[in-house]
């Protein structure tokens, strides 16, 4: 539910703008208002989960997210919807930051943990992949408000289940790591980073460069603070782990390519092939189906047998192949020939790569640092997705403008821009593939 809300609004944007009277510039904040607090608070929320209890953080965040969904669904003014989306981002960060840490604690055994991570990855992938479909279907059938109101019964059921099923855990207490200056620095750095990335896609310039420098300065100040604090918010020694650092870096590259594919792929289907919103969502369905089937039935067994360090490169190779296929999709393309094979490759690759990179990121993490590692993993997802979307859309738009100015037809120019974006995405994931082979080839996360 929380991952789905990151992109469910994409196809509902025209209806929201017409109903609430958003300006074109203001409309982007329906997405940005969610992403910035979500990405900025993940690391802090993960660490606070270690200190006050991960179940308490998870259920509190779920309650905040569900309440914010109600406010978003009944919004009648642009500012009220933006405020509700920001509150959704806060609640989403509180829940998402600790869920991996809870899984590691609940399933310490190698086989059980691999299965749990596969189910977790399948749920997240389904949320991301189904966002476009559900956004189009709900908007056309019931109205844009229901892309938010549908969260109310889901959130209520999840909240009741969490109280009944999850065991209570006692954190170490805020005194064990309540570094408030450090918390302010890292939260400010991450929020500025996400804001700079999403703004760079449309307003690149001196202001964006200045914000990037400021975000880097805050991050550097945070590192210095953690090295000197008596009770640091983040134990810097955690990043000496090749598995944790390598897996998170590789995830940034993988998610950048995959998230950009979802957005650019939807534009290709709509603006080049002429699909409407609902048909675009239906066209994407094979990917989440493949992801769900393979993650729930095969991924855990593959990781258990061959090791995550071997499964990850194989999955990334399939993703590169799928993106390369889309890079040659013509303007007069046919779905069965030019789109469906790529979707199947991307679905199969992601089903293998995502559980593997998750297992590697959490390998060897101490129980008391599980929430922090979980928050870090979720943070790199948001940064990777935002970065991929900003870079790929900017490249596609620049190529389209150049060709249109040279006399090319609008469809041909759009298609060429999208092809460029797909090829760049394939190159980005290919860098992750090389890193996976070179950096993580000796890691054995399931050899407990």
UniProtKB/TrEMBL annotation:
<feature type="transmembrane region" description="Helical">
    <location>
        <begin position="82"/>
        <end position="105"/>
    </location>
</feature>
<dbReference type="GO" id="GO:0046677">
    <property type="term" value="P:response to antibiotic"/>
</dbReference>
<keyword id="KW-0812">Transmembrane</keyword>
<dbReference type="GO" id="GO:0005886">
    <property type="term" value="C:plasma membrane"/>
</dbReference>
<feature type="transmembrane region" description="Helical">
    <location>
        <begin position="245"/>
        <end position="269"/>
    </location>
</feature>
<feature type="transmembrane region" description="Helical">
    <location>
        <begin position="281"/>
        <end position="299"/>
    </location>
</feature>
<feature type="transmembrane region" description="Helical">
    <location>
        <begin position="178"/>
        <end position="198"/>
    </location>
</feature>
<dbReference type="InterPro" id="IPR020846">
    <property type="entry name" value="MFS_dom"/>
</dbReference>
<keyword id="KW-1003">Cell membrane</keyword>
<keyword id="KW-0472">Membrane</keyword>
<feature type="transmembrane region" description="Helical">
    <location>
        <begin position="117"/>
        <end position="138"/>
    </location>
</feature>
<feature type="transmembrane region" description="Helical">
    <location>
        <begin position="57"/>
        <end position="76"/>
    </location>
</feature>
<feature type="transmembrane region" description="Helical">
    <location>
        <begin position="375"/>
        <end position="397"/>
    </location>
</feature>
<protein>
    <submittedName>
        <fullName>MFS transporter</fullName>
    </submittedName>
</protein>
<dbReference type="InterPro" id="IPR011701">
    <property type="entry name" value="MFS"/>
</dbReference>
<feature type="transmembrane region" description="Helical">
    <location>
        <begin position="343"/>
        <end position="363"/>
    </location>
</feature>
<dbReference type="GO" id="GO:0022857">
    <property type="term" value="F:transmembrane transporter activity"/>
</dbReference>
<keyword id="KW-1133">Transmembrane helix</keyword>
<feature type="transmembrane region" description="Helical">
    <location>
        <begin position="311"/>
        <end position="331"/>
    </location>
</feature>
<feature type="transmembrane region" description="Helical">
    <location>
        <begin position="417"/>
        <end position="440"/>
    </location>
</feature>
<feature type="transmembrane region" description="Helical">
    <location>
        <begin position="27"/>
        <end position="45"/>
    </location>
</feature>
<feature type="transmembrane region" description="Helical">
    <location>
        <begin position="144"/>
        <end position="166"/>
    </location>
</feature>
<dbReference type="Pfam" id="PF07690">
    <property type="entry name" value="MFS_1"/>
</dbReference>
<dbReference type="InterPro" id="IPR036259">
    <property type="entry name" value="MFS_trans_sf"/>
</dbReference>
<feature type="transmembrane region" description="Helical">
    <location>
        <begin position="204"/>
        <end position="224"/>
    </location>
</feature>
<feature type="domain" description="Major facilitator superfamily (MFS) profile">
    <location>
        <begin position="1"/>
        <end position="444"/>
    </location>
</feature>
<keyword id="KW-0046">Antibiotic resistance</keyword>
<keyword id="KW-0813">Transport</keyword>
């Amino acid at each position: 539910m929380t991952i789905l809300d990151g992109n469910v609004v994409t196809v509902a944007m025209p209806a929201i703008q017409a109903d609430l009277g958003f300006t074109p510039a203001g409309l982007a904040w329906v997405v940005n208002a969610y992403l910035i607090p979500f990405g900025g608070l993940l690391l802090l929320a993960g660490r606070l989960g270690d200190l006050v209890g991960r179940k308490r953080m998870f259920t509190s965040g779920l309650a905040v997210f569900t309440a914010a969904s109600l406010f978003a669904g009944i919004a009648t003014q642009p500012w009220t919807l933006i405020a509700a989306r920001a509150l959704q981002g806060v609640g989403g960060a509180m829940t998402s930051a600790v869920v991996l840490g809870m899984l590691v604690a609940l399933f310490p055994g190698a086989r059980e943990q691999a299965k749990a991570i596969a189910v977790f990855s399948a749920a997240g992938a389904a949320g991301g992949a189904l966002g476009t479909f559900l956004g189009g279907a709900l908007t056309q059938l019931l109205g844009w408000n229901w892309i938010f109101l549908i969260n109310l019964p889901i959130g209520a059921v999840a909240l009741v289940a969490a109280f009944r099923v999850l065991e209570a855990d006692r954190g170490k207490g805020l005194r064990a790591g309540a570094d408030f200056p450090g918390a302010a620095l890292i939260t400010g750095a991450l929020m500025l980073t996400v804001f700079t990335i999403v703004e760079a896609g449309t307003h690149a310039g001196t202001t964006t460069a200045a914000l990037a420098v400021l975000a880097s300065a805050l991050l550097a100040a945070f590192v210095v603070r953690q090295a000197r604090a008596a009770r640091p918010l983040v134990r810097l020694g955690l990043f000496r782990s090749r598995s944790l650092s390598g897996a998170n870096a590789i995830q940034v590259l993988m998610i950048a390519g995959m998230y950009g594919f979802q957005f650019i792929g939807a534009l290709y289907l709509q603006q080049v092939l002429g699909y409407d919103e609902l048909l675009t969502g239906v066209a994407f369905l094979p990917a989440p189906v493949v992801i769900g089937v393979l993650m729930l039935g095969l991924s855990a067994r593959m990781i258990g047998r061959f090791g995550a360090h071997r499964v990850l490169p194989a999955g990334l190779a399939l993703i590169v192949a799928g993106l390369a296929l889309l890079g040659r999709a013509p303007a007069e393309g046919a779905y069965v020939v030019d789109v469906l094979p790529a979707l199947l490759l991307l679905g199969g690759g992601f089903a293998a790569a995502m559980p593997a990179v998750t297992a590697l990121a959490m390998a060897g993490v101490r129980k008391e640092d599980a929430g922090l590692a979980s928050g870090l993993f979720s943070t790199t997802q948001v940064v990777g997705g935002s970065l991929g979307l900003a870079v790929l859309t900017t490249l596609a738009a620049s190529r389209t403008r150049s060709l249109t100015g040279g006399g090319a037809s609008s469809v041909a120019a759009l298609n060429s821009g999208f092809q460029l974006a797909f090829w760049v995405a394939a190159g980005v994931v290919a860098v992750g593939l090389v890193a996976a082979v070179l950096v993580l080839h000796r890691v054995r996360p399931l050899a407990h």
